[in-house]
Every structure is written in structure tokens, then in C-alpha cells.
Amino acid sequence: MAHIDLKQPILDKNDRLAKENRALFAEKKVFVVDLLASPGSGKTSTILATINALRDEFNIAVIEGDIASSVDSEKIKEHGIPAVQINTGGACHLESDMIRRAVEVLDLDNLDLIILENVGNLVCPTDFDLGENMKAMILSVPEGDDKPLKYPGVFQAASAIILNKVDTLPVFDFNEELFRDHIANLNPQAPLFPISATKGDGVDAWASWLAGKIRALKAS
User: Fold this and answer.
1) What are phi and psi of 201, to 5 degrees?
2) Quick one: angle between helices 203-219 and 43-54, nearest 10?
3) Contacts by 186-189 with C-beta closer than 8 Å and gap 24+?
4) In the chain, which end has fewer C-beta atoms inside a 10 angstrom radius, N or C?
5) What distance lies between CA 136 and its chain's CA centroid?
6) pLDDT tens-place string over residues 39-98
7) CA distances to 36, 68, 124, 131, 168 from 135, in Å
8) For the CA atoms of 25, 69, 35, 172, what is the dihedral angle to 10 degrees?
């Protein structure tokens, strides 16, 4: 029986366009973070906390990916940050051609950092290169310490892992030591940043690490 691989041609096209995106971002020296997480993990609040920590030094824009609505991009714009909304129309991830169209309305010459808020999903976005400098992922405490075992791919793809809502640790049955062991087994190179995005706890450590990456790109 013949086997037809429908996924590979899609990925091949996506990777080609991602390469073009990466070359454009490198030329403009704009650092790009692809942020992955489940719905309700606190992506937007983490983005806003990151912006507040970095905006005095860097010019930042956000590209919001969602199946529908522009709620998150409106929240970003309220803080005076350029935001572009991408509605995927049912697709569970962003793709590189979507990013290319989105950045056409951004002033790349005057940007240092673009944060891509991917569609809330721990599976589909992992396979799609967008031309970003790195993927980072957020897990919130209420989601449980076993998520690295259930979705290892996203934890392995991430260059940094954020554990959000740590202020709720006393409320939920979340074994932080076990979670750290899972991360160490799957991706020992990735730093782990425990934060509470809404309260600000731990955000400075994450933002400082990210700032170092941006400065390194600017100096290269």
C-alpha cells in the first residue's frame, strides 16, 4: 500500500520561509522569541511582565497568534507596545509565512525584540520553525508537574522554560523537585525560571537572562 506523507511538503515550505525570516531578523538585529504554552498558562501576563522589565532598554513588539479574536493584542497595545494579531482560522499553530506577513507592518529598523505568542498548544507549534532565535515555553503550576512526561517535545525544543504562577504552589499538588528532575532529564541545557507574572516574583531573573541574549545579538 502506498504511503503519502502530507506533512513533509508543508514543513519543507515552512522551513524555507523560516530561513528567509531568520535572515531578515539577523540583518535587522532583531531578537525573536517564539513563546509556547497551553491556554490559561499566563502567556499574555508573562509577556506584559517581560515588557515592563525590558522596555526601558529595548524597543519591543508582539505578534499575537490565536485561532480567533484580538483580545490579547488589544491588551498589549494598551501598554503602548506595537502588536500584530494573527488569527489562524482554526490552525493550531503559527507558520513562517504568517510571521513574514505580520512583520511587514512592523518597523524592524527600530526594534530590538519581537515576542511571538503562539497559539495555545503544547504539540503542533513544536514542529514549526518560524525563523525565531529561540523557543521558550511556559508551564503554569495548576497544569501539573507531569506535563514534561506527557509533552516531552515542547520541553526539549525550548531554550528556556518558565514555571508560572508559583505563588499558587501551596494550593496545588505540584512537586517542584520532581518537575525539575523531569526537565533535567529532557533538556538539561535549558534554564528554568520560576515566576509569578502577575505579582512580579522571579520576572527579573528571566528578563535579565533574555536581555543578555538580545545584547549579544546587537554586539555580534
Assistant:
1) -65, 130
2) 60
3) 186/148, 186/152, 186/155, 186/156, 187/155, 187/156, 187/158, 187/161, 189/159
4) N
5) 5
6) 899 999 999 999 999 999 999 999 988 765 566 678 888 889 999 988 776 667 788 899
7) 7, 23, 13, 10, 25
8) 170
Angle at 217 between CA 126 and CA 22, to 5 degrees: 45
Q: Return the amino acid letter for 69.
A: S
Residue whose cell numbers read 494573527:
86
Helical segments of the chain, H only = 7-28, 43-54, 71-77, 96-103, 147-150, 152-157, 176-186, 203-219
Q: In this structure, are residues 20 and 14 in contact, taking their beta carbons and an 8 Å threshold?
A: no
**Tens-digit pLDDT profile for residues 94-145:** 888 999 999 999 999 999 999 999 887 888 778 889 999 999 999 999 999 9
AA letter at 30: V
Q: CA–CA separation, 145 vs 176, rounded Å?
A: 7
Give the predicted TM-score (pTM) of the model: 0.90
